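Let us begin with a simple case.
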Amino acid sequence: MSRLPAGEFRMGNERDYGFPADGEGPVHSVTLRAFWIDSTTVTNEQFNEFINSTGYKTEAEQFGWSFVFMGHLSSAQRAKSVRLVVQGSEWWCRVDGAMWRHPEGPGSNIKKRWAHPVVHVSWNDALAYCAWAGKRLPTEAEWEYAARGGMEPGNRFPWGDELEPGGRHRMNIWQGTFPTANTEADGHYGPAPAKSYLANAYGLYQMTGNVWEWCWDWFDAEYYRQSPLADPAGPAIGERRIMRGGSYLCHASYCNRYRVDARSANTPDSATTNLGFRCVRDV
């Protein structure tokens, strides 16, 4: 874990590349206490230790299915395991038997992916892991503060405002035409190992791209307009929990949310093949 100092930063985004419906603005000052944060998302290896220690069953295991990106499924898998596709987002398939040990459903495994982020974990699953590890999920404000890495306000990415500075890829996102053609110019078609690319100034890896990360807060598009100035922890109630950072499926034409100031949300029992988490701990 990295220890982040107490400090104040400017949170949010009001520029024209954002999504007003997500409540990215207004930009506002936030003060935070010092805290520790995992340098990477929780990996399959770490999650496996938790499962072996507790016997916990994830919600995807209990439900018997989870959502998988269609491009990761063979034609045989689609015929055998796909129960339905999401209307309007047909690249998402509901796959029987998909879960963290079998990311693409029956027949897939994580034998060569121990260093990859664990996926197919719901917010509730992440909370259970945190309790076992003696940690907690970051608040949305803590996550953005950490992702910015002490950079000047207004930067889109943990390293600055340019997507590929010097022509170098700095994160794992979709390259090409979504969802049909990924050139893999950044070296990855699916998730990359959790400790890939350069860390930000706080020593944190892949705060943007790769996999979405659960945060503690409930989502409210109007929350920034009345959030506390110090250590905000989100609305008291809600229907969806905040996700941050974007994923390997994000592309400028479809999901321009692989930014430090972008936000999204999902129901606490949701699990997908591009959603993970990292933990924090109080100082």
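The second case is a distinct protein. As before, the sequence precedes its structure tokens.
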Amino acid sequence: MKQTQQLHDLGQSLWLDNITRKLLTSGTLGHYIEDLSVTGLTSNPSIFDLAIKDSNFYDDAIRKKKKEGKSGEVLFFELAIEDLRQAADLFRPIHDRTAGMDGWVSLEVSPSLAYDAASTVKAALHLHAQAQRPNLFIKIPGTSEGHAAIEEAIFQGVPVNVTLLFSAGHYVAAAEAYLRGVERRIAAGLDPKVRSVASMFISRWDKAVMEKVPKDLQDRLGIAIAKRTYKAYRDLLASPRWQRAASSGAQPQRLLWASTGTKDPKASDILYVKALAAPDTINTIPEKTLLAFADHGTLGKVLPEDGGDAEKVISAFTKAGIDDEQLAADLQREGAASFVASWKELLGCIESKVSTLKAAG
């Protein structure tokens, strides 16, 4: 049995953290779905930036859209939605077979809206309508301002991938925003089955403390934070509040592990795939990590529902001078700023491509 299938049988979905037009047109994504148990994918500005910059697959579409008078964000979102529609159609049989639990693709609102709830909701509604695919998540950052946007988007019926979560506290706040949206739909007599996932970023923890802690603590903080968050996830699903919503037909907001490519060259290239195996979760991984796990991956222990040794490990980091709450806040703020920088770079890349194509005639 393939290693990736073992994760699938455990109840964990494997999603690809990548999308390119080449990946779609070459049949590679279809191969990953058929042979490596990939059941969804995510995208972000950096992924699209690299895809457009490093290939000519988008040249004809960019040239055509520019002649139509489109530029900037409008042009980019049309390119991205074209790709994501194709991917969504490939995953649609999985989506239908799992009654909407799996088979999703994700598109991010402009990262510049991370601290503007009203504009985020407006953009989420517009992009989801423009895509015309039921299995498209709109990614909304889980910043404090984003909570109101998450709640309202869910109430409006837009499936949401909450991104930029770094701690159990971040997760709980995002989950409660989702639950408020669902509860409002129930109160209004609307169908509560609006799907959502909550994306916890893992490897950035270990990168942030790499030079600040003893060797025996390196590459352990991200996994400990994940264990703490998994306990919070299980606790929420067992709570009377969630059970009331579930009895009305609401579906759980699934916990998703993001940023699971290993950043430490000395560590295993499948570190965060092996360590984060858990039922009712998703691991969205870079292409390189997917292929590595398919080649030589093994399953470790399943994440304990009670958090296991999470608090003991985090306490060791506290003694080493790491304030996990402050670091979570810093990582979220830095992540939001990084997404904005990637967004600006992406739009600059498109304009550069336009200029190059115009010069080439």
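The CA atoms of residues 201 and 258 lie 5 Å apart. The chain has a mean pLDDT of 95.
Keep these points in mind for the review questions at the end of the chapter.
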